[in-house]
Design a protein that fits this description.
- With 162 residues, the chain is of the alpha+beta class.
- 33% of the residues lie in helices and 30% in strands.
- It has one domain.
- The protein has five helices and eight strands.
- A six-stranded mixed β-sheet has the order 3-4-5-6-7-8. The protein has a two-stranded antiparallel ribbon with strand order 1-2.
Amino acid sequence: MTNIHPFGEIDPHDLDECYDAQIEVNGDPIEIDLNFESKTIEVDILKKVSQSIDAVDVQIQKAFEALSADFDLGEESEAALFYLEHHLEQLSDDEILKIFGSTEITKELFLKKIAVSRIGFYPEDEESFVVVDLKLPDQYTNYIMAVTFDAEGELSFISMES
């Protein structure tokens, strides 16, 4: 058995498909899940998951940095700026004002108003080991930006999903 906070004891020889929990980061509750395709896994991989969870604030910071860099790509942006422009087209002026407090939305304001909604761990997937989902408030959208990191904690890709 391996103890992985916040999931508790996990038997690496008898895994469930998914474990759900909630953590608190900077006073905000965040949904967190741990996902397996197999019924067994090496203990070392579970330890790596545990270390990643312990350093989740670093992953969140890296996710915001990745979105900031993507935003700076302008028309080449595949997630951040595209996500913002999509919502500016879909939301009313009143909704935009409620979210941002302005209709002039800078990168800094955009990054301040998005929040982490979920963090998923996929220990069997080297390229998608950690996925940080960020979004505008729930009442305004069901779209997320998924910032995906590999097993070494390096950015794999960013995508917009619904």
